[in-house]
Amino acid sequence: MSPVLKPxxxxxxxxELIVARDIRMQLTDIGYEAAGxxxxxxxxxxxxxxxxxxxxxxxxxxxxxxxxxxxxxxxRAELDIPVVFxxxxxxxxxxxxxxxxxxxxxxxxxxSERELRTVLEMALYKSQAERTMRxxxxxxxQMAQRVIEVQESERRKLxxxxxxxxxxxxxxxxINMETRKRLDASKLESFDRKTTEIIDDAILKVRxxxxxxxxxxLDDLGLLAALDWMVNQRSLTGxxxxxxxxxxxxxxxxxxxxxxxxxxxxxxxxNVQRHSLASHAYIGLTRTDSDLTxxxxxxxxGFDLQAMAQKAASGKSLGMTGMQERALLxxxxxxxxxxxxGRSQVQLFxxxxxxxxxx
Length: 359
What we know:
Layout: E1 9-13, H1 17-29, E2 33-38, H2 41-51, E3 55-59, H3 68-79, E4 83-87, H4 92-99, E5 106-108, H5 113-180, H6 185-213, H7 216-220, H8 223-235, E6 241-246, H9 255-276, E7 280-287, E8 291-298, H10 305-313, H11 318-329, E9 333-338, E10 344-351
Parallel strand pairs: 1-2, 1-3, 3-4, 4-5, 6-7
Antiparallel strand pairs: 7-8, 8-10, 9-10
């Protein structure tokens, strides 16, 4: 059942009481709610601040120290509420001054009910569109900032891996090469064997580092093979038993979808290892005629979902934010839940395009 939309609330600022009453009646007749009335700009500012209407109908020529243009400028700057001017004057100097407040329209007195409806509908539509654009712009800026933060985090991690793992191996090889010059021929065979072991270990570290950045299996054999590799790798470290179940089979999916599902699974499994104190975790990948679903759940201690959501909203939880943004980019939905018994679960749903080529 579709929700019932509330009518837009319009506040009227008009110093002629009969005209104001007529306008409020017209607003009701065309489906709007008359949110209130003021005869002066000063009274309007006080009441609009309290009422927070969706739009203000503002007479330009008002008695008092502040006219309608001055009041509209304050309302626009302070409250971000759209203003439509009511005026019987078309003098160029008045209109030029009114334009500086960036109004959402003008209605010249006298006006018809049809004119009022048209101007209000256009003003409200324009106002909503601008708010949506500003919100989208803020989200894009936040996303760009988080992308930079994630990139820097990954670079720091890579730098540490190179320094702590590969750097030490290369230093040991260099020391061995210098030491070799001073050894007797009888000791070279044993010494070279140890140096070769260090080189083999360095090669293995480079290979593992490359796989952690992006496993070749994901490109070559697809999502299920990459998940199977990840589960096997994670099972070798720590005390958690990881189990993988799937009905996907060997079929391939769009590259962006496979990458997103792998990265979300990777992040979820990492969180299980770091925070859950679990002994068992399950990774499931299920395809139906309508969607592809990933589920990762564990038997750990759970977490504070509200606190995590607040951290994500403030940009402090890059893992959760990254999963949500990856899902958004492919048109997927992600649900993160935790239960009183401690079980946590991450689910990713991607609606399958019926025309998707499965071959």
